[in-house]
Specification:
heterodimer; A: alpha/beta; 6-stranded mixed sheet; 4-stranded antiparallel sheet; 7 helices; 33% helix; 26% strand; B: alpha+beta; 2 domains; 6-stranded mixed barrel; 10 strands; 54% helix; 17% strand; transmembrane transporter activity (chain B); Macrolide_Exporter_MacB (chain B); ABC transporter permease (chain B); transmembrane helix (chain B)
Chain lengths: 224, 404
């Protein structure tokens, strides 16, 4: 089976001046269905790693294959298309559009995939039902709690049926009880075969993953 | 080599829907952004509308009198040798031309003594101009009859000894009433005064003259003297003066049209156009300046919006949006704002022109060529204003955008 993520000596150096090696050459393979936590202190290179994996940034050296596709061979436009189809993002700050309802925010995830509007609406409805928000379809982000907003963001990330769910501190802005609900949601997705890569500061959150990868001073190490 | 990934797609309908949502979801900001275009386009329409209205006003004032009068003059050096310049049926020939209202021949019969009593000795008596005129010529001069009546074809054909006097002249001669059929003695010849003229709109000099039917003058004092050529006055319908003038010489003297000098009034349209051109170029510059200010306003607000919406741009990029998708959305939003501003500005401008014209009792003239493309002017303004911000938005890298 093709690995979802395959890093081969991938590094990222910001040219500066002065040049900064944010990520030293790293190797990592994530198989389909794995739940990987990425931990490390602030400024260690976690965000750089996440941006590379999410195709938001390009490696300075090495090869990165997503679902077997070498992203180094792709143009910016094709990278954008691959990102839209194969990767679902869940951000710490939710990144919901404030003037759109929950349903519209989720539909936005499919806007650039050529999905017809009626189908977008149906799939968004299904995704919101999956995160138990089918009763809040017309609510604006300002009318929702933090937990609800994050569940809308998760529904939006899932709506394109991505190969990889990339989560950046998804419980960072939530209280303990709400965070627990969201983590249970991730657990359920993992149980159904979703590949998850989660950047977190929280050891408890990392403890729920199959594998934990540490980044310290730009060096990536497999912890377990 | 073919890429293993199909590119992202954004249909035109979705693009329009997103751009419209981007505008309508921030109505306050949209209204303020469009305000610059509203002012610019409204000024554009008002300026051109008022220029056309004022031009029309000038035209109508000129048209009422001057622009409907054509003068024809005999240029012969010796009418006695060359024969009469105008044929017997001159008025009939000219009236047959389409657009002619009235026409007639007249000439100055010189200055002659005029008295209200049959004095044998005319020494010390004032001399006044005597004008020989056909009934058509008198009518074409638009006199206002204060008392009595004008002479007609019967008086002319029969060479009746009748005369018309100006009101001031009649007073000087002591004639205020006509019921006793008073007479004036012109060079000793008695002529019955049948009308007193209160005004003569086209030829004010009639008020200081004795106006006598042309046949009467010919019978009493002969044809026009050398140096006092006969003339014809032709009254035309509004707008017909130029065409009538081009035909009248041939109609009167097909054998010698060059003998007649035809004077047409200046074309009121060219007068109006020259006034309008001067005003247009001045105010058009003002309107374009306003539009420029509006454009800078849209550009500035759109640019700020791009900076504010960097997070949204990053989010859309994470969903697979290409730079061109982002640019197209911002450009379309800007174009929509410009079009809305253009539409509102056109309405405001048109209503303003109508309101101003109504208060001045003018006829509002708003040319279609100023109103119809005006909203489009707003669109173009919006697009031009949105170009730079849209390009900036397209260049924002997703990783930068999502870090904010």
């Amino acid at each position: 089976m093709t690995a979802v993520i395959e890093l081969d000596a991938v590094s990222r150096v910001y040219p500066g001046p002065p040049p900064v090696a944010a990520l030293h050459p790293a190797d990592l393979t994530v198989e389909p269905g794995q739940y990987v936590a990425v931990v490390g202190p602030s400024g260690s290179g976690k965000s750089t790693f996440l941006n590379l994996i999410g195709l938001l940034d390009v490696p300075s050296t090495g090869h990165y294959r997503l679902d077997g596709i070498d992203v180094g061979d792709l143009t910016e436009n094709h990278r954008a298309a691959l990102r839209g189809r194969r990767i679902g993002f869940v951000f710490q700050a939710f990144h919901l559009l404030p003037h759109r309802t929950a349903l519209e925010n989720v539909m936005l995830g499919m806007l650039y995939q050529g999905v017809p509007r009626p189908e977008r609406q149906q799939r968004a409805l299904n995704a919101l039902t999956e995160v138990r928000l089918d009763h809040r379809l017309q609510a604006l982000p300002s009318q929702m709690s933090g937990g609800e907003r994050q569940r809308v963001a998760i529904a939006r990330a899932l709506v394109n049926e991505p190969s990889l769910l990339l989560c950046d501190e998804p419980t960072g802005n939530l209280d303990t009880a709400t965070a627990e609900t969201v983590l249970e949601l991730f657990h359920g997705l993992h149980a159904r075969g979703m590949t998850l890569l989660m950047v977190t500061h929280n050891d408890d959150v990392a403890g729920r993953a199959d594998r934990v990868v540490t980044i310290r001073d730009g060096l990536l190490e497999e912890q377990r | 080599m073919k890429s293993p990934v199909a590119p992202s797609k954004l249909t035109l309908r979705d693009l329009a829907s997103e751009a419209l949502a981007g505008v309508l979801q921030r109505p306050g900001r949209a209204a303020l952004t469009a305000l610059g275009t509203v002012v610019g386009v409204a000024t554009f329409v008002i300026v051109l509308g008022l220029t056309a209205t004022v031009g029309g006003q000038i035209s109508s004032r000129f048209t009422v009198l001057g622009a409907t009068e054509v003068q024809v003059e005999d240029t012969s050096a010796d009418p006695g040798l060359d024969g009469p310049a105008f044929p017997e049926d001159a008025a009939g020939r000219v009236r047959a031309i389409h657009g002619v209202v009235q026409a007639g021949v007249y000439w100055s019969a010189g200055e002659r003594t005029v008295n209200s009593r049959p004095l044998a000795d005319t020494a010390g008596t004032d001399a006044y101009p005597v004008v020989a005129a056909s009934p058509g010529a008198v009518t074409a001069m638009h006199p206002a009859v204060a008392t009595g009546r004008l002479f007609d074809d019967f008086h002319n054909r029969s060479a009746e000894p009748v005369a018309l006097l100006g009101e001031a002249m009649a007073k000087r001669l002591g004639i205020t009433r006509l019921d006793s059929h008073p007479a004036v003695f012109v060079a000793g010849v008695p002529l019955t005064v049948i009308g007193i003229l209160g005004d003569a709109q086209r030829h004010g000099d009639l008020l200081l003259s004795v106006v006598v039917p042309e046949r009467t003058v010919e019978r009493l004092w002969g044809p026009p003297a050398q140096g006092e050529p006969s003339k014809m006055i032709v009254e035309t319908q509004i707008g017909a003066a130029q065409v009538v003038a081009s035909q009248v010489a041939v109609a009167l003297r097909p054998d010698a049209p060059d003998r007649l000098k035809v004077t047409a009034p200046p074309d009121p349209r060219s007068l109006r156009d020259s006034v309008a051109t001067d005003l247009n170029s001045l105010f058009l510059a003002l309107a374009l300046t306003c539009l420029g200010v509006g454009m800078v306003g849209i550009a500035n607000t759109t640019f700020v919006a791009v900076l504010e919406r960097t997070g949204e741009i990053g989010l859309r990029r994470s969903f697979g949006a290409r730079g061109s998708h982002i640019a197209a959305q911002f450009l379309l939003e800007s174009a929509i704002l410009g079009t809305m501003g253009g539409l509102i500005g056109t309405c405001v401008g048109t209503l303003s022109v109508v309101a101003i014209a109504a208060t001045r009792h003018w006829t509002a003239v708003v040319e279609p060529w100023t109103v119809l493309p005006a909203p489009l002017l707003g669109t173009v303004t919006g697009i031009l204003a949105g170009l730079y911000p849209a390009m900036r938005a397209a260049r924002i890298q997703p990783v930068q955008a999502l870090q904010r």
